[in-house]
User: Which sequence fits this backbone?
C-alpha cells in the first residue's frame, strides 16, 4: 500500500516538468474564467456564495452541482483526457486515480475556490456603490 501511494505522489509531482506541462497553467486559468463568469452571475442574481450554498442548501444541492458541472465539466474532462495522454506517453499505462486527482486539482478546485469569494466581492462592491449613490 505504501509503495502505491508513494508512486502515485511521485508520478503526480513529475507532471509539471513533463510533456503537456502547459496544461498546468491553462486548465486552472480556464476554470478560473468560468468561475469568474459564474460568480459575477451569482452576485447579480443575489445568490449566496457557491461553495457555502452547496453545503448549506441540501434541497437544492443536486441543482447546484448540475449548474457548477455545466460550467466546469468540459474543463474537467479536458484535464482528464490530457492526463491520460500524458500517462500513455510517459508512463505507458493509465492510472485512473491519478487522472481523477490531477483533473480535480486543475479544474474543480480552482473553480470552487474562485466562484464563491468573487460572488461575495462583487456583492460587496455593488452594495457599496448603491450606498454611495442613494
Assistant:
Amino acid at each position: 500500500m505504501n509503495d502505491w501511494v508513494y508512486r502515485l505522489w511521485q508520478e503526480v509531482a513529475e507532471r509539471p516538468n513533463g510533456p503537456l506541462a502547459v496544461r498546468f497553467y491553462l486548465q486552472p486559468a480556464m476554470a478560473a474564467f468560468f468561475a469568474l463568469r459564474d460568480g459575477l452571475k451569482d452576485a447579480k442574481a443575489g445568490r449566496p456564495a457557491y461553495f457555502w450554498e452547496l453545503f448549506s442548501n441540501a434541497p437544492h444541492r443536486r441543482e447546484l452541482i448540475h449548474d457548477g458541472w455545466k460550467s466546469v465539466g468540459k474543463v474537467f474532462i479536458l484535464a482528464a483526457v490530457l492526463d491520460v495522454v500524458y500517462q500513455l506517453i510517459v508512463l505507458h499505462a493509465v492510472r485512473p486515480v491519478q487522472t481523477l486527482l490531477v483533473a480535480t486539482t486543475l479544474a474543480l478546485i480552482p473553480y470552487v475556490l474562485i466562484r464563491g469569494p468573487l460572488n461575495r466581492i462583487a456583492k460587496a462592491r455593488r452594495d457599496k456603490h448603491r450606498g454611495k449613490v442613494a
Summary: Residues 2-133 form one domain. The chain has one domain: 2-133. The radius of gyration is 18 Å.
